[in-house]
Structure prediction request, 118 residues.
Amino acid sequence: MTEETLFSKIIRREIPADIVYQDERVTAFRDINPQAPTHILIVPNKPIPTVNDVGEEDEADLGHLFVVAARLAQEEGIAENGYRLIVNCNRHGGQIVFHLHMHLLGGRPMGRMVSQPK
Ligand code: 5GP
Prediction:
């Protein structure tokens, strides 16, 4: 069975978060440690741990992440200038919460695509 993370508790509104959008498939809330003026996490309500665990049955939920990202980018006023969508996977991807999620980052130029290893 998939172990729950704190994101499931946020989705069920058991712990507080600044939720900006929610429907039957996904929940979006502001990152607690924002890396840009807009930093929103868009999370499937189903607790899929990582991209490695994605199955064909998840296509509709995961496609919906993009629909919600586009809508939120419009609402945040960052659509025209642009933004970055990130999905981290496991250690090398820098994933720290093991409930798959998409980062929506914008409001400033996002710089190089990846930082160089130190
Ligand atoms: P990851 O590195 O797993 O892709 O990103 C996880 C993100 O979740 C991080 O950007 C982190 O700041 C955010 N985060 C971790 N705990 C909480 C929390 O309790 N509330 C909110 N809103 N964001 C969180």
In short: The chain has three helices and five strands. Residues 6-106 form a domain with the HIT family, subunit A fold (CATH 3.30.428.10).
